[in-house]
Design a protein that fits this description.
Oligomer: single chain
Number of strands: 6
Shape: globular
Largest sheet: 6 strands, mixed
Order of helices and strands: EEEEEE
Number of domains: 1
Length: about 60
């Protein structure tokens, strides 16, 4: 599978927001993340980096 971990990068470091993310959508500056269990988060953030090798999605405020 190709699930990823979702992190928010802040001044103090990185905070893990979600595991097993399978969908990222961006609409009007809002990021919608959904994981394998259907849990959903809406975030006012920007995508900083997507690392397919390490299965990580890094957001920034």
């Amino acid at each position: 599978m190709c699930e990823s971990k979702l992190f928010m990068e802040r001044k103090g470091g990185r905070e893990k927001l979600m595991d097993e993310v399978i969908l990222i959508q961006v609409k009007n500056g809002v990021i919608r993340a959904v994981n394998l269990t259907g849990e959903e988060k809406l975030l006012n953030a920007k995508i900083k980096e997507i690392d397919f090798d390490r299965h990580q999605i890094i957001l920034m405020e």
